[in-house]
Every structure is written in C-alpha cells, then in structure tokens.
C-alpha cells in the first residue's frame, strides 16, 4: 500500500497563503498586504454604497446597460463622489493603521471587499476612485449583473452593506450580518481617529423575541416578561456577530494598555426603558462576553438627537421610523430588515384571530 498521506483542504489553503505571503514580501511596495480572510474582520460593501452613483443608476435604469457601461468608461478618469458608507470605510482604514503600528505582523485587521454586480468594465473607474481617495481596498468581486450574495460566505464576510434591500434580506436569511444603506447627505465632521458604531438592541444585536411580546400583548406585559426572565439571555440577533468582531479588535488595543485611546467605540441606543427592562439586555451582553462602550436607554424618546450628539460612522436599526428620524438629523443609518418590525408599524398590535 502507498504511504502517501492525503493532503487536507486546510493544508492546501495554508500552503497557498504562505506562497502568496512570500511572493508579496519579495515585492517592493509600500502598500499594506491584505490579511487572510480567516483572521480578518471582513466588510463587504457595494459600489453604490461606497460611492454616490445615483446619477449613474438613473442612467442605467433609463437607457440600459450598454449606455451605462459606455458612460462609466468615458468618465473613468473622474473619481466618483463619496457615498453613505465612505466615512465608515475611511474610519476602518484609520483603525487598521493603528493596529499595524501596535502589531506589525498581525493579520487581525479589517478587510474591505468591494462586492458589486457591476460589469467588469466599470471596475477601472471604481479602482481609480478608490486610489483617488487613498483607500486600501484590494479585493473586488464584480459579478456582471448576477447577485453577489453567493460569494459572501466564500469571502468570510462579517458584514455586508448594500443599497439593495432584497440582497440584504437574502444575506440575512443566509446567516450573514447585513444592512441596507441609503443615499443621504452627511456631515464631514465625523471623527478621523475613532470608528464609532451604534446599534439598536432588539432585532439587531438581539432577536426580536421581546419585540414580539410588545406587538402582541403591549408594554405592560413586556415589562413583566423582561423582569421575569431577566437572568435568561436573549437569543442573538443578526448583528451580534459583528459586535463580537469589533470586540475582538478592541481587545487588541486593551492588551497594549490603550483602552482609553481605543480607536473603536461602540454604542447601544435602544428605545427600551432602563429600570423597567434594561437589566436583561446588559446581562445578555455580559453572558456573551461582549462589552459595549456606551448604553443609552431612551424609554421611547426619539433617537435622532442623541445620535446627532454621538456622530457615529454608522447606526444600525430594524425600524424604518428610527432610521428616518436619524437621517433627518444627519446620522448615517443602515436598516436591518429582520424581525416582526418589518411587518407591523410602531404601536400597532398584531391582529388576533377571532375567537369562535
């Protein structure tokens, strides 16, 4: 019998990465090398989310693909304007710079992948725009009109940001953290040195189990339920894994005694009341081993003014009325289409079946 030992897929993959590492290290370049996906916090972002392509989108819808591609080729030397996700991506790059200073050989970094169904010919303008703004985005996935969702797991995506709500919903159904972003104006006063990420609680970090009770049985029953089950952790929501990934990178700064100067700051901004139903949320995070830097319990008050004060690079919420209120005051917001809130409006109880 042969003594040849079969090589595992993992071993093959590791050899490929080592070969790539040697190749890149032998090249003289000042550009940072992309990290291995298995170590990185991977952010997949669509081209229409990273850049403002509203005009180009209208051209595509009005005149079709051929004219759209021709327009992009004609204007490929002109940089696209920043889109809604641009400040977030820019801040991510700033965090990477700090991580590389503290850990020169570490591959635990953010990795941004441009995930788009654009035609490959449009790629030149996208590359030129990325280089124009000094963004380090080396991984592209251009699918030529096909949905890119099938590639998200292959890229080991931690979060997917897109303007296409159908694709975002599809990603969440596949178990991938995702959110829909919108074209909007935003302030240019966002921090250049600290990435600020704000999350809603129910149906974002946590499941919608408690929100279902509010919709079905009202606030009083909800308060009673949360007190009764205060020590029972909530089930995880679609973005829990992204908070977990952010926490992994935060701890690298803490290990270097940089907690007070950490360039990542997280916020919980929830409509929950603190005294009536806040303990379960905080105990759930503790059980998960996750920290949140600031927790704001608003007891039903509008979130927009608080978010305007925080100035996050991105705010995630499952309720469109919170998104709209935040956007009106200039906060870059992303909708998480998950849970019962997608089917019912605020304060409207689920219609109960008639009793026979």
TrEMBL record:
<dbReference type="GO" id="GO:0009117">
    <property type="term" value="P:nucleotide metabolic process"/>
</dbReference>
<dbReference type="Pfam" id="PF06189">
    <property type="entry name" value="5-nucleotidase"/>
</dbReference>
<dbReference type="GO" id="GO:0046085">
    <property type="term" value="P:adenosine metabolic process"/>
</dbReference>
<dbReference type="GO" id="GO:0000166">
    <property type="term" value="F:nucleotide binding"/>
</dbReference>
<protein>
    <submittedName>
        <fullName>Cytosolic 5'-nucleotidase 1B</fullName>
    </submittedName>
</protein>
<dbReference type="GO" id="GO:0005829">
    <property type="term" value="C:cytosol"/>
</dbReference>
<dbReference type="GO" id="GO:0000287">
    <property type="term" value="F:magnesium ion binding"/>
</dbReference>
<dbReference type="GO" id="GO:0008253">
    <property type="term" value="F:5'-nucleotidase activity"/>
</dbReference>
<dbReference type="InterPro" id="IPR010394">
    <property type="entry name" value="5-nucleotidase"/>
</dbReference>
């Amino acid at each position: 019998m042969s003594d040849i030992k079969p090589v595992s897929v993992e071993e093959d993959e590791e050899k490929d990465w080592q070969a790539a590492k040697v190749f890149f290290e032998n090249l003289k370049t000042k550009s940072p090398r992309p990290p291995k996906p298995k170590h990185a916090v991977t952010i997949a972002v669509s081209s229409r989310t990273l850049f403002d392509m509203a005009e180009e989108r209208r051209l595509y819808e009005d005149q079709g693909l051929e004219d759209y591609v021709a327009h992009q080729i004609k204007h490929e030397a002109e940089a696209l304007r920043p889109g809604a996700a641009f400040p977030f991506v820019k801040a991510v790059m700033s965090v990477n710079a700090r991580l590389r200073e503290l850990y020169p050989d570490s591959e635990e970094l953010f990795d941004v992948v441009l995930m788009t169904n654009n035609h490959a010919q449009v790629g030149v303008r996208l590359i030129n725009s990325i280089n124009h703004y000094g963004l380090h985005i080396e991984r592209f996935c251009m699918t030529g009109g096909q949905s890119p969702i099938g590639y998200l797991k292959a890229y080991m995506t931690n979060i997917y940001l897109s303007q296409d709500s159908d694709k975002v919903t599809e990603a969440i159904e596949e178990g991938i953290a995702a959110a829909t972003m919108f074209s909007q104006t935003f302030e240019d006063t966002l921090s250049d040195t600290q990435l600020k990420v704000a999350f809603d609680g129910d149906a974002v970090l946590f499941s919608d189990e408690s929100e279902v009770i509010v919709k079905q049985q009202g606030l009083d029953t909800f308060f009673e339920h949360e007190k009764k089950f205060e020590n029972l952790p909530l089930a995880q929501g679609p973005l829990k894994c992204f908070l977990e990934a952010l926490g992994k990178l935060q701890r690298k700064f803490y290990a270097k005694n940089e907690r007070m100067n950490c360039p990542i700051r997280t916020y919980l901004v929830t409509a929950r009341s603190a005294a009536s139903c806040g303990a379960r949320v905080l105990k759930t995070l503790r059980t998960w081993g996750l920290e949140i830097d600031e927790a704001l319990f608003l007891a039903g008050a509008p979130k927009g003014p608080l978010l305007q004060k925080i100035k996050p690079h991105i705010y995630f919420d499952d309720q469109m009325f919170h998104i709209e209120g935040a956007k009106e005051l200039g906060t870059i917001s992303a909708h998480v289409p998950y849970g019962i809130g997608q089917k019912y409006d605020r304060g409207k109880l689920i219609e109960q079946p008639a009793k026979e």
